[in-house]
Amino acid sequence: MANRWILSGVVLAWIFSAAAGAQDRGSIQLRPDDFKVAGLVEGMPSARVLALLGAPKSVAGSGDFRDKESKLVSWRYRDLTVLLGSSDEVRGVWISGPSLATKRGLRVGDSRERVGQLYGIPAAGDEKMVEYADPNEQLHVIRVVLKRGRVETIFVGWILD
Predict the structure, then answer these.
(1) CATH superfamily of this structure's domain 31-158
(2) Rounded to whole angstroms, how far apart are CA atoms 27 and 120?
(3) N or C: which end of the chain has fewer CB within 10 A?
């Protein structure tokens, strides 16, 4: 009889630990390191971006809807677009090709299943997009755009509100 209670306790402990492990995998929180891509970090001045990546292939600018006097600038590189805010610092990046990966190893072309393995359950999403938010800043995200179940582009940075 005592052996049955011990066995029952061991089985219950195993079930609870397995459930806790599954819950941990389901809610993998973003960390500050997750927002680093290709040596770039948010807030990095544009001069340091130039020193690290060289001159961009192209440059585009648009007005900042929050401040009519400011511009938002995008620098395009191979497989990467660097978004510079009105303060001339990195605010985010778009990964558009497989030569670059996120800190956790996600690349353009990976499956939706791989996204889930690396990042867990998204804060928002549907069949075309999944988004993971910084637990401290809901507008600080990793957004994965999907096409036919595969990663098409990855945004890492701040969403403008």
Answers:
(1) CAP (3.40.33.10)
(2) 6
(3) N
User: What residues contact residue 37 under an 8 Å CB cut-off, 6+ apart?
Assistant: 80, 93, 95, 100, 102, 103, 156
The continuous run of DSSP H or E covering 156 comes out as strand 150-158
Give the DSSP letter of residue 64. Answer: E
Degrees to nearest 5, angle at CA 156 with 117 and 38: 95
Return the domain boundaries, the chain.
1-30, 31-158
Q: Which residue has the tokens 């990976």?
A: 110
pTM attached to this predicted model: 0.80
Question: Residue range 105-132: average pLDDT?
Answer: 96
Q: Are 45 and 73 in contact (CB under 8 A)?
A: no
134: three-class secondary structure by DSSP: strand
